[in-house]
Amino acid sequence: MAASVRSFMMQKVILGKSLINQSYVIVRNISSHQLFIDKFGDPRLVLRSQHVELSPLKPKQVLVKMMMAPINPSDINMIEGTYFVQPSLPSVMGNEGVGRIVEVGSDVKGLNSGDWVIPEDTAWGTWQTYKVTSDESVIKIPNDISVVSAATLSVNPCSAYRMLKDYVNLQAGDVIIQNGSNSGVGISVIQLAKEWNITTVNVVRERPDLDSLKQSLQNLVPNFVVTEEFLRTPQMKDLLKSLPARPKLALNCVGGSSATELFRHLDQGGVMVTYGGMSKRPVTVPTGALIFKEIKLFGYWNTSWNRKHKHDLCRFEMLSDICRLIKASKFVSPQCEFFTLDNYKAAIERATDGYRSGKIVFQID
């Protein structure tokens, strides 16, 4: 789909404004500060910094000034070489973020200087100050939401949205259960479920700062927050009895015994969707759950969904819906710690901390 059509679709869904004519200026003598790798390995060792002079714009290119870009688990895995997508090396890192267009090529339609854009696909290279890129490689979004909300829009909120929409026909009053509830996706699930009147049972690991973690989640007004250990107690049975129904959907990003516990609490014919494996342990399925409870298993990968629905209106409607909730203060941005590109080593160290709370974000602009 041409960028002009895609931009128009997004504009129609989100902005409802007519296009504005824009003069075109060719880029010259601009240097980009980039974080890149030329080999896979430990992110603390292989991630490097460089300054590169940008080439002039071609007719169908735009110059994007990056504003913010988070460090997601997929970024760490990509640097390690363990992610399913492995870019050709050397490569600038960063899968998610938001930038502002500062120049457009002479043949670009539907994008103008000042527009905010997010990457259309993964491995885009958001950890840099400027990027010259094809007009078809970006999606225009509203510029009346916070920068941090825009920078963290396309991965966690969209993953939560799709998993709640695509696998079970959830209705108001239904119940879901999820582990990793303090993750970016987990927090997004809590907020979307609240908006759609879906009850959530949110599972977290035992950890040194458990009380403060529970309090931070309670600020989002979830229904229940319990530990993995609590799932195996008689009190969990009492909790389930207090619910209007047993969970229809389980969302798993941990694997191992944590996933097994989710199986145990699903309703007859329930569905479990796995979108991560933080424990690095396999998902072990009890035979009885498959045969007698007819539990169904699925996997979700946000990159795959985006590629399959690259030109579909449902993608832009989803982004529009999430942006609407953000503007209505019904979907808040995650708790963040900010780092500059110059301080990238400290940022990577923080991002790989096992008990880190919140999201690590490069504040570029």
Word description of this protein:
Residues 205-299 form the Formamidopyrimidine-DNA glycosylase catalytic domain. It is an enzyme of class 1 (oxidoreductase). It comes from Candidula unifasciata. The chain is α/β, with parallel strands linked by helices. It folds into two domains: 3-153 and 334-363, Medium-chain alcohol dehydrogenases, catalytic domain (Quinone Oxidoreductase, Chain A, domain 1, Alpha-Beta Complex); 168-299, NAD(P)-binding Rossmann-like Domain (Rossmann fold). 32% of the residues lie in helices and 22% in strands. Helix 10 (287-291) links the parallel strand 13 (271-274) and strand 14. It is globular, with a radius of gyration of 21 Å. The protein starts with a helix and ends with a strand.
Write the layout of secondary structure elements.
Layout: H1 3-15, E1 31-37, H2 43-46, E2 48-53, E3 61-71, H3 73-80, E4 91-92, E5 98-104, E6 116-119, E7 130-134, E8 138-141, H4 147-151, H5 156-166, E9 175-178, H6 184-195, E10 199-204, H7 210-218, E11 224-227, H8 234-242, E12 249-252, H9 256-265, E13 271-274, H10 287-291, E14 296-299, H11 302-308, H12 313-327, E15 336-339, H13 344-351, E16 359-363
Helix pairs in contact: 1-12, 5-6
Keywords: Fatty acid biosynthesis, Fatty acid metabolism, Lipid biosynthesis, Lipid metabolism, Mitochondrion, NADP, Oxidoreductase, Transit peptide
Domain Formamidopyrimidine-DNA glycosylase catalytic: 205-299
Protein name: Enoyl-[acyl-carrier-protein] reductase, mitochondrial
